[in-house]
Amino acid sequence: MKLHWVWVAIAFVLLQAVNGVIDFNETELSFIEAYDYGVSELNHNPLMVGLTLITSAGAKGAVCLDGTLPGYHWHHGYGSGANNWLIQLEIEVWTLGACKNFTLPIILCQGGGWCNNIRTCVYRKKTRRGSSTYMEKHIPFTGILNFFNWNRVKLRYCDGASFTGDSENKAAQLQFRGQRIWLAAMEDLMSKGMSNAKQALLSGCSAGGLASILHCDEFRNMFPTTSKVKCLSDAGLFLDAIDVSGGHTLRNIYSGVVGLQGVRHNLPRMCTVHHDPTSCFFPQNLISNVQTPLFILNAAYDSWQIQSSIASPSADPLGLWHDCRLNNAKCSASQIRFLQGFRIQMLNAIKGFSMSRQNGLFINSCFAHCQTERQDTWFAGNSPRIRNKTIATAVGDWYFDRAGVKVIDCPYPCDNSCHNLVFS
């Protein structure tokens, strides 16, 4: 029966993908989660990789929100890739549909990339995002997780603060140990051969994309200077933007995360000497000071940020943005102008970063979020392109120094290669 529904999900998503639009019904949470795990890969037999719990983590206090051991999925490299490593920091499944059956704060329902108060963290620890008890024992490796013949590792996300927190709340029985999880995972992998890496790439999407920026230089410093080490952030360029009500929805969320989870002491000092801790959780205040080569991949009209930050229901109590939030084709001319302003803010945020020759950029004018783990957006016949270059090709050219890559799309609606996310 389970297999039957997996194939239903595959057929559903592939049918929509043909038209360059992924159309989800708000109640189809299970389909969305299957899609985020790559079930829609054009190859219907994706590589399934088992979960490994980090047994040494417990003694280091490196545990998930509920105190269970963290874990990762590792597919061993072989041949010429035996000493090359890709570390992928897990994405956060997000969906409007999650709010359908739960009376929960909007940050949890509409994204939950982070938990910013006791209530959302207590809920989270009863899911795979806060406990290894609920994690899938096997997951498919698709998109960037099919990175040649390298060692490919997907580190599971169970702390709710982009692997940066280090505190606890005994009354609520919550452990905020993201930084310790990060270190314990890296130490474990180093002991299993990663210390011999000739080439390494730290990547992540969404909350994991933010984490790949925050931990990029730390990751570089784990290897000898002779190793080629770079970082990739997909959909991690979260902006400190003004929302449609004139407020700062995401700043309020980040302030809760930083304060609750003890993030402050794990933020880059180059930032905290000039800015408050919450500001230093925003990539726009971090990326220019990252010393390691970094590639930023982002949709200029990031779906998560539209739905959960700049036009969230809490910022739009009258529902004037409801239809636009679900489907970009239903945005009014004035709403598109507002979103064009968001795109301009994103381009301004990367100006200093883009001046470094070692860095890479791929900013496409799509309504999307997380484009590396999905096979259809990472590398397929109809994948998104800028100047006829796919995301996979752009990342490959940059990582292997084949070419400098700093490509920025023309404004919406000029790009007809997008796989826009549409919620109906």
TrEMBL record:
One of its GO terms (molecular function) is pectin acetylesterase activity. One of its GO terms (cellular component) is plant-type cell wall. It comes from Hibiscus syriacus (Rose of Sharon). Belongs to the pectinacetylesterase family. One of its GO terms (biological process) is cell wall organization. Its EC number is 3.1.1.-. This is Pectin acetylesterase. Residues 1-20 form the signal peptide. Transmembrane segments: none annotated. Its main location: secreted. It is found in: Secreted, Cell wall. PANTHER family: NOTUM-RELATED, PECTIN ACETYLESTERASE 12. Pfam families: PAE. It is an enzyme of class 3 (hydrolase). Keywords: Cell wall, Cell wall biogenesis/degradation, Hydrolase, Secreted, Signal.
